[in-house]
Design goal:
CATH architecture of the largest domain: 2-Layer Sandwich
Strand order of the largest sheet: 5-4-3-8-7-6
Number of domains: 2
Low-confidence stretches: 1-16
Largest sheet: 6 strands, antiparallel
CATH class of the largest domain: Alpha Beta
Oligomer: single chain
Order of helices and strands: HHHEEHHEEEHHHEEEHEEH
Shape: globular
Strand content: 15-25%
Radius of gyration: 22 Å
Number of strands: 10
Length: about 270
Amino acid sequence: MTALRPPLTSAIDQTEGSAAGSVQAVRRALSILRAFKIGDRALSLGEIAGRTRLDKGTTRRLLMTLIGEHLIDQNTETRNYSLGLGVLELVAGLGPRKDIGQRAQPILSEIAKETGATAFLGMLHDDAALCLARVDGDQAITVRFWSVGGKMPLHCGAGPRVLLAHLPQAELSRQLAAPLAALTPFSPCDPIALAKMLARIRKRGWEVAADDIVEGIASLGLPVHDRSGAVTAAVSISGLTTQILDRNRPRHLAILQRKVRDLENALG
C-alpha cells in the first residue's frame, strides 16, 4: 500500500508557523534589550519580566541565549543582568554612522582636553538621541550617563535638544505631542515651554542645559551640519554645572564652535 503524503498546505502551514515562532522569539529578545533604560546599571529577572510583560521562564531562557551572544551580562553575586559588550559591536556596524563617529573621535578628544569636560557626538535614532562617540575629560567627577550606544530622550540634555530643535516641523509636532518623561524635577516636560526653548536653539545655534538629566550636571550642545546645511548630528560637553556655566552663560562656547567647524570640514 502506498503511503499517503501529507497535503502541501499542511507543510506550508507548519513552515509558516515555525517562521512566525522565530519572528516572535526575535521580537521578545529585542524587547529584553530595550527593557534597559537610561540610568539602569542592572535589572533583576523580575524587573525585566515586568517591563517586557513576559513570564519569568521565557525571560530567563531568552536571557541565557543573549548571554551566549555577549549581548547580556549577569553578575554572579547579585544574579542581576546588564547590557553586554556585544551591544557595542552592533553599534559599531552602523555604516555611515560608524564613519562619522570615527572621524569625530580625535576632535572630541581635543574638546575634552581643552575643556576638561566629557565630550559627546549624538545622532537622531528611533525617536531618541543615540551616542555614537564620547571622550571623558579630566574632571574629578566623571559623567556616567550616555555611554556609546546609549539613548537619551530628545527633550533632555543640550545635545539631544539640539537634534530635537532641527527636526522637520511635522516630526517636531509629533514629538511635542507625545508624553515627555521627567528624568529630574528640572526636565522640560511642558510642550509649550519646550517649543519656545527649541525656537531659541534654532535662532542662536546652541543650547545649554542644567539639572535636567542629573542634578548638579550641565551641558552645552551645538549642531553639526552637512554640505547642504542640514543638521546631521550634535556635539556636546557635560560636567559639573560650575565647570560648564558661568552666571548661566556657557564657558566653552567658542571652543565648541571652532571644533564643530573643524568636524564639519572633516566630514566634507
